[in-house]
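User: My collaborator sent over this chain with a note saying "see what the structure looks like." That's all I know about it. Can you take a look?
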Amino acid sequence: MENKILSTGAKALEVNLDALRYGSFAEIGAGQEVVRWFFRVGGAAGTIAKSISAYDMKVSDDIYGKAARYVSRERLEDMLDHEYNLIVECLSEQRGDNTAFFAFANTVSARNYHGTNECHGWLGIRFQTEPHAAHSEIIIHVRMLDHENALQQEALGILGVNLVHGAFHLSHNPDLLVKSLLDNLTTDRIEVDMVDLHGDAFLHVDNRVISLRLVQLGLSNAAMFSADGRVLQPSEHLRKKNVLVERGRFRPVTHVNIDMLNAARKQFEAEDDSAPDETISIMEITMHNLLDGNDSIDLEDFISRADVLEATGHTVMISDYPEYYRLATYLSRYTNRRIGITMGAHSLIELFHDRYYTTLHGGILEGFGRLFKNNVKLYIYPYKDAATNTLFKVDNLNVDAKQKYLYEYLKEGEHIQQIEAFNEEYLHIFSPDVLKMITSNEPGWENLVPEVVAEKIKTQQLFGYKPAE
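Assistant: Without extra context I'll predict from the sequence alone. Here is the result:
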C-alpha cells in the first residue's frame, strides 16, 4: 500500500510543527513563493528565523558576492554558504544543543512579460539531520513548463515545500525523496533535470543512480554526469558547445566504441575552426537499452556500465529518447552550435525503417526533418560482414529500396558523413561477444577493450567477472 501524498499545506505545517528544525529562506526571482507556504499555514515562528529576497543585483552582490550569472548553481551555492553559516554562527550558542539548523535558497527566472526568457531555476537546502551534525545538502535544477508567470510561481512554491519536507523526512530514502519532488505537481508543469545529494546524510548515495531515477520516474527525459561521477546540469554543461554523441549499450565499452567516437570527433572538429575545448563528447545510453527482459533495471549492471564509461574519461548521458530525432531536439534546446551523432553503419540502415516513425503524422519524412533541422550531422562507422568479408560504408549500404532517393538526398546534402580514419582491425569486435567471454571466463577478452576498461572490470569484478582460482 503506497503512502498517502500529503497536500502542500500539510507538508509545510508538519515542518513548522517540528520543534527540531529552525532556519532561513533566501529567494531570488519568482517571488517569495516557497516561504509563503510556511507563513500561510501557521506556526512559522517555530521554524523560520529569517526570510530574505534580494531582488536588486547590486544588493544581491553585496550580500552574496558577484556572480557571472544570477540564475546559476554558483549563485545558489553562494546563497547557501552565506545563509547557513550566518544562522549557525548567530544561534548555535543559544539553541544549538536542541536544534537542527537549515538554510533553503533558490534563484529563479520565471516567464517574463514577453515570454522570451528561459524559465528555469536552482533550488537547494543545506541542513543538519540532528543537533551538532555536519551539514548535508540537496541541490536541484528545474525547468518550469507552465505558460503563465503566476502558474510557474505556484509550481515553484509547491516544489520548494516538497524539497524542504523531503530533506527532513526522507533523507534516509533517496528514491522516495526524489519521487516526492513532484508531489501535487505533474511533469507537464515541472521538469527536474538534476539532483545532487551530498553530505553526511548521503554518504552511501550514488548520484549516478539518482540521475537514472530522474529519467526512470519521468521527472526528466535525460540526465548527465561527468567522468568523475558528478551530476551535471545540461544547460550549463552544453551551453555554447559543439556536441558529439555516441549511443550504445556499452556492455562493456570496447575498442570499437572508443575508436568510433575518437574518429568521429577528429572529423567533426576538422569541419570548422572551433577549438577542442568547444566540443564535448557524450556517450549516451537510452532507458530502453538499460531494461532487462522483465522491463526492470538491473542497478548493478547500470553501475558497471557507468564505471567503465567513466574509466574512459567521457561524459555520460541517460535519456528516454529511443528516437534519434528526439535526442537531437533535446540537445538543440541547450546549444545553438553544431551537433554530431555517430553510429555504426548497421544502425544507419535501421534508421531508414518506416516502423520507427508510425507515431508521426508525416512519417519518416517528418522524422528526418526533425533530426536534421538543427545543424545536425550523422557520422557513420563502417561494419564488416564476416561471411563475405565485405566492408559496408555510406556509399554501398543496402538501404530499403523505398528510401533510396531519400538516402541519396541526405548523403548528397552532406547530412550523412562517412568516418574515414577508422581502425579496420577493430571491426570484428562486438560487445555481446565480449560480455559472453567475460562472464564465461574465456581468455582474450582483455585485448578487445581499452586497457583502463579491462583493469576496471577486473578490479571491481564488473559484468559478472570472476578471477580464475
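A starting point for your reply to your collaborator: The chain has 16 helices and 16 strands.
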